[in-house]
Amino acid sequence: MSEKSTKEDLEKLYLQILHQKKKAEDTGKVTDFFKEVLDFNKNALNDEGLTFILNTLEHFQDHSVFHELWKMLEEHPIAYETVIEFINLNQDYTDLIEVYLNEKFKLTSVDDILYEINRLLAFAPYLVKNRRFQVFAIQKTAYAVGDSPDIFKAATTVKEFKPTNSEVDFTHVKNKMMEFSIIAVLDEIEFKSITLEDIDTFGQLTAERLNAIALKDSRIIIKYRMMMALSEIFSTSTVSVSLVLKQLPPQSREELREVLKNILGNNLSSKYFHHILAAFDNEEGSYHYPQLFAYLSKNADKELMVLFIKWSANNLRIDHHYHRGLKNYLKTHPRSVWKNKSGRKELESIPSSSFRKIVKEVKNEKAPPLIKLVKKYGVQFAIILLTLGVGSGLYLGYDLLADKKNVAAFSKTSKPSATGQVETKKAEPELEPFKKWVGEIPFIFNVNGEQQKMTFGQANPDGGKTLVLTDSQNNETSFDLVINSEVTPFDEKGVLKDGISLYHAEHDFDGNGNPEIVIMALSQTYESFVWVYSPISENGSIGLRADLTLKGMSDAKLAGNTLKILVDHGQSETYSFINQQFVKQ
Fold it and tell me: Which of 30, 127, 244, 382 could be a cystine partner for 373, CB 3.0 to 4.6 Å?
């Protein structure tokens, strides 16, 4: 075909397109002419060819042949670069590149999108300056990262990406791609399932810190600060974990402690002792030691448990919280290292005078009755007492072995002395608003101005498991404290097991003027069982509706419409009372 006839044909086709006389069924002829133009301009695209290509693309941009035309254009690098450069310089044709790129980026995986970016830039470096291309590259990559099964691996792939065309300055676009990829990671992060490897990867992704304010979304900002805190406290052994946590707002600190407990449960080692402490910080200058020792006993082996106790004895202030928490653990926990001979010897070798006092108390209180008797009264006097006790059939040994403050526990007829009452009261933990429930004394509360009375234990012939509610008309209703757990605070007779106490409290979760009733069974190791009841009126009488039953590892904290408690692994759970029911947050 001569140059003159080709030009004439092009002008004729252009006029047909311009006056919209070209029908869809004639597109085959369009592609033939398009190819003719490209082949004719394979060495350099003249003005007439450029005009024809742009107008043909513009006319067919809503037709399926549009992408076929672009594909043909890609096979002619000189014409393709010329068209792309012209569109960059003339915003009137921006829609053409947008429709084209939208088709190119109909991809879902990060690898496929990065491959397409690299392929486009390889023979059209001018695209890197195109605003539409930049937006597509940034947004599509971020969406793909967020939808990836492994968001951290996907974001790392973006970080490592580099165009093979060395002439392309991809720095600005790459930085924006990383910024939005990190936002996508933060949006998808589930702190409950995060790992140490994820935290390390995030630290590498954010080697150059982002401007938290520029993130705009408050939820993303909080997640970013929490992840940066985790990255900081696990990246170096010299950082103060507590100081890093204090940089966060209170709610974020509490959430991050739960994350630490979850992460460390499968990664316990001596290098994380500071992290473990931070996870159980009570923000009052001490730690939740009962929960801490329960958590360690569940997740650490004997050697690591002994190592932690020795480390804590040398590095922590042994206050009354530590003293009581460790002593209860050593005495009563089923997996206490005190039961192991070698572990016991190691603890006995700790030179600290404060720690030796704890060991001495545990040894004395765990000793058999005969040994206690000898230590307290001497060998000869103990023999006389034992002889008298056996001859008379009296339980003198138990009476004499009991501490003065605990004598009443072994005698049904005696009453505790005033001194005993004072000392016992001092030993009780402060559990406001809970009050310890003495079996003989009924729990009195009011519903709609009418007095209600609840009894259990010795005041109830069915035992502590069954409670009896008596209204102002002396109508009685009984109900059981049932817990959906293999472990219960009651023995087979429905009586509280040794070492477990019952507590009661009134708390108005919904603010309607009739407080809900909260009952809690609590062991010395802070294993807890909690029941929440709402007073209801049925056929003119008052009843109780069971709203919540929980087993935990701490006493329940009541505030506003929420109940918070530590559960397995030392994690905190919060339940909100909404629309007359508790909802786990």
Answer: 382
Burial per residue of 327-354, b for 16 or more beta-carbon CB atoms within 10 angstroms, e otherwise: bbbbbbbeebbbebeebbebbeebeeee
pLDDT digits (tens, 9 = 90+) for 37-50: 788 777 778 787 88
3-state helix, strand, coil in the chain (%, to 5): 55, 15, 30
Q: Which two tokens stand for residue 417?
A: 């002395």
585 by Cβ neighbours in 10 Å (0-12 / 13-18 / 19+) ranks as: exposed
Please give the pLDDT value at position 368. Answer: 66
Distance CA 137, CA 163 (A): 13
- pLDDT at site 59: 80
Strand 466-470 versus strand 516-523 pairing type: unpaired
Contact criterion met (CB below 8 Å) for 357 and 326:
no
Residue whose entry in the numeric block shows the structure tokens 């005696």: 414
End-to-end CA distance of the chain: 76
- In DSSP terms, 435 is beta-bridged to 504
* Residue 216 confidence (pLDDT) above 50: yes
pLDDT digits (tens, 9 = 90+) for 16-40: 554 443 444 456 677 877 887 788 7
Q: How far is CA 312 from CA 169, 315, 319, 326, in A?
A: 55, 5, 12, 11
CB burial class (10 A; 0-12, 13-18, 19+) of residue 535? buried
Residue 13: predicted pLDDT? 57
With 0-12 / 13-18 / 19 or more C-beta atoms within 10 angstroms meaning exposed / middle / buried, residue 303 is middle
